[in-house]
Each structure stands twice: as structure tokens, then as C-alpha cells.
């Protein structure tokens, strides 16, 4: 399959985070709602490529019933592939859960127009590290690279890190491949995006410690960041719904992007409530919340993101988020209150929930003291 820029010089990528489908998809109302979002987004945006950001389908019974898993993946990608649009996917931590990663990759790769494979030598960590090149609109030469990196599962030693990171051998393989691309590109780093499931620790650089008056909307950091409550910092767009669940160890992946050059943006799944984005040290990073309704979510805020690259000016790529209700869709799988309230009402409800929790506990004073301890304890 050869990806190439259109005659207007554009290439559109539609992103879906953490769909988390399960074997009951045929009767599942949340699968129907997810498909409504997928169909509406495909009709409106007509992308050139879709990307699934991992944790797509449970591989729980793949060893006993590989055909069932294959049917589930087929049902998931059908709205995309039936339109003749290619779809690439990374592996999420939950695709690693049952130890059948190679079977998962082989099943995805068995479908026409579905891209998931391992380009790295077998001894390199991970089961699906690969890249796809986008060719110029005349089809003559590759001008942009899309990297799909396997961010692995949880760390084998939770005292070191809850989630695993992209290992040193993966980073070395990536750097070697980037060197080849640079040679192919006349000595200049090829403009590139990274797609992977688990975010890099630098995502926290898009956040800052919350001021006291921001505590109702602040979110506690994850694991090694749990002493601090965060909000998006100036320049960060979108919603911070939870502390980013990145690895507790920084293994130098972001530094490697800076070293090789040309990495314009990185797109992550994994955190089902976050859809914030921004620049850190010249590299755009975007977090994708779930595009489904199966796993934990915040209701109709579920969304997709469109990224548009301009062949002539790749550094000026654009992106936009669109939520379920903004497509004019009606949700059937959620409880009535989450079906009907707006995003703004949902946020206000969240703030009210904090206040009510404080009042219902040991009173407003205790609530304020707890928040003060949380705030100052986070230094
Ligand atoms: Fe997930
Ligand atoms: Fe995940």
C-alpha cells in the first residue's frame, strides 16, 4: 500500500483512541454508538488514513478462539475499510495483556487495508514497531514519515515504573532508521509524526501545578506525580481529565526525537479522559481520549481528532477535535443524564460534585483543609 499526498497537496489522518471493544460487540449498545461516531467522522472528513491508538479490542480469548477475535477486529475496522480507506494501528498495553501479541499483529495484518506489523528485528523489544512513508502528490518520492511505536505493557517491576517505556533497543533501532531516511531525503531529517499508545513523561511539561482557586478542576498526577494537582499550562489546549499515565522512568525517547530531528508531532492514546495538546521544546504532543464508550469515559465528550498535513509546508500541519454530540449524534448506551448534558454542563457537574463531596464529608472547612494540604503537599 502506497500512501501519498492528494493532488491538492494535503493528507488527512483521522485518529481514534482506546476503543476497548469486547466480544459482545454484536449486541453491545456502546459498540453501536462508537460506530455512529466513526461513520459520522469518516463521512465528514473523508480521511486518507485512519490511526487506531491501541487498546482497540480485547485479546482475552484469542488463544482459544482466534476466529472470534478476528471477527471483532473486522467489525471494528469495517466502517473504515469498506470506504477503501487504509487504517494503521499501534499496540496498546491491553493488546499485550494476554501474551499473544504476535497473533494479534498477524490478525490485523491479514485484512486488506489494515496496517500493523513489525519492521524491527525480532530481538528488538515490542511486537509492532514500524513506519509508513507518505509520498509526494506526484508519487515520485517519500516526503513524510509516520512512525508507529510499541510502548509495551506495564513495567515488570512496579517499584521502578507502573507502565513500561519504549526500551533503549527500540530507540536505537528508531535512530538507525531515521538516519537512513535522512540519507534518502538529501541529508535533511524527514518530517515525521510518532503514533504510540502510552505517552512519554514529557506530557507533564504541558501541565502546571494548579493554583488554589483552580483546585475544583485540577487533576492529580499519576503515580510518581501523585503529590501534585495539575491543570493545562498556557498554550496547552483541550481538556485535562486525569493525570497522564506515562511511565515513571524517562528512558530518553523524547530526547531521541530531538536528536534525530524532523519529529513534528507525537500522538498518544491510553488516558481515556485527556484530549489536551501543546508544544514542548518544539514538538507538538496530543493526547487522545477514548473514541468509544466501553472503558471509563466522561460520556459524550468522547471524540476524534483530524490532523491535516500540507505537503509544501509540513511544519504547519493543522489539527481539530470533534466530539460525539458535535456530529449531531444521539447516544443510546449512556445513562439519560450523560446523554443529554452538554460538555459545559458536564464540567460544571464535575465541579459541583467536588463541592458536594466536601460538604457531605466533614464540612466545608475540612474540604478546604484537605485541598490546602493537597495543594501545598505537592511541592
Ligand atoms: Fe485504554
Ligand atoms: Fe492503555
Residues in helix, %? 25-40%
- What structural class should be given to the helix and strand makeup? alpha/beta
Supply the number of structural domains: 2
In sequence order, what are the helices and strands, one letter per element? EEHEHEHHEEEHEEEEHEEEEEHHH
The CATH class of the largest domain turns out to be: Alpha Beta
Shape descriptor reads globular
Record the strand order, biggest sheet: 1-6-7-8-12-14-13
Mean pLDDT: 92
First CA to last CA: what distance?
51 Å
CATH topology type of the largest domain: Purple Acid Phosphatase, chain A, domain 2
Largest sheet: 7 strands, mixed
Strand content: 15-25%
From the 3D coordinates, which CATH architecture of the largest domain would you assign?
4-Layer Sandwich
Amino acid at each position: 500500500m502506497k500512501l501519498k499526498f492528494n493532488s491538492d497537496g494535503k493528507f488527512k489522518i483521522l485518529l481514534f483512541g482506546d476503543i476497548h471493544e469486547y466480544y459482545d460487540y454484536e449486541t453491545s449498545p456502546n459498540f453501536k454508538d462508537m460506530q455512529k461516531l466513526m461513520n459520522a467522522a469518516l463521512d465528514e472528513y473523508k480521511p486518507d488514513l485512519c490511526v487506531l491508538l491501541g487498546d482497540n479490542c480485547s485479546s482475552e480469548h484469542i488463544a482459544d478462539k482466534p476466529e472470534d477475535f478476528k471477527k471483532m477486529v473486522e467489525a471494528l475496522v469495517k466502517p473504515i475499510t469498506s470506504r477503501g480507506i487504509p487504517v494503521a494501528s499501534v499496540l496498546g498495553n491491553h493488546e499485550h495483556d494476554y501474551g499473544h501479541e504476535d497473533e494479534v499483529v498477524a490478525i490485523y495484518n491479514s485484512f486488506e487495508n489494515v496496517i500493523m506489523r513489525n519492521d524491527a528485528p525480532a530481538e528488538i523489544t515490542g511486537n509492532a514497531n514500524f513506519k509508513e512513508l507518505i509520498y509526494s502528490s506526484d508519487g515520485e518520492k517519500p516526503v513524510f514519515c509516520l512512525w508507529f511505536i510499541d510502548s509495551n505493557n506495564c513495567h515488570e517491576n512496579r517499584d521502578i515504573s507502573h507502565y513500561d517505556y519504549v526500551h533503549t533497543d527500540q530507540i536505537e533501532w528508531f535512530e538507525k532508521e531515521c538516519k537512513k531516511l535522512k540519507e534518502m531525503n538529501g541529508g535533511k531529517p524527514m518530517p515525521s509524526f510518532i503514533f504510540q499508545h502510552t505517552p512519554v513523561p514529557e506530557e507533564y511539561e504541558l501541565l502546571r501545578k494548579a493554583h488554589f482557586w483552580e483546585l475544583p478542576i485540577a487533576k492529580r498526577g499519576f503515580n510518581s506525580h501523585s503529590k501534585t494537582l495539575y491543570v493545562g499550562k498556557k498554550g496547552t489546549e483541550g481538556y485535562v481529565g486525569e493525570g497522564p499515565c506515562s511511565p515513571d522512568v524517562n528512558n530518553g525517547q523524547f530526547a531521541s526525537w530531538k536528536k534525530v530531528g524532523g519529529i513534528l508531532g507525537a500522538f498518544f492514546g491510553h488516558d481515556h479522559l485527556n484530549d489536551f495538546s501543546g508544544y514542548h521544546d518544539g514538538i507538538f504532543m496530543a493526547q487522545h481520549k477514548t473514541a468509544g464508550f466501553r472503558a471509563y469515559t466522561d460520556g459524550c465528550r468522547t471524540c476524534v481528532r483530524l490532523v491535516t498535513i500540507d505537503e509544501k509546508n509540513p511544519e504547519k500541519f493543522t489539527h481539530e477535535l470533534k466530539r460525539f454530540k458535535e456530529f449531531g449524534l444521539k447516544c443510546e448506551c449512556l445513562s439519560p443524564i450523560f446523554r443529554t448534558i452538554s460538555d459545559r454542563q458536564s464540567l460544571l457537574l464535575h465541579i459541583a460534585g467536588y463541592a458536594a463531596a466536601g460538604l457531605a464529608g466533614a464540612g466545608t472547612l475540612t474540604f478546604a483543609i484537605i485541598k490546602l494540604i493537597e495543594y501545598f503537599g505537592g511541592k
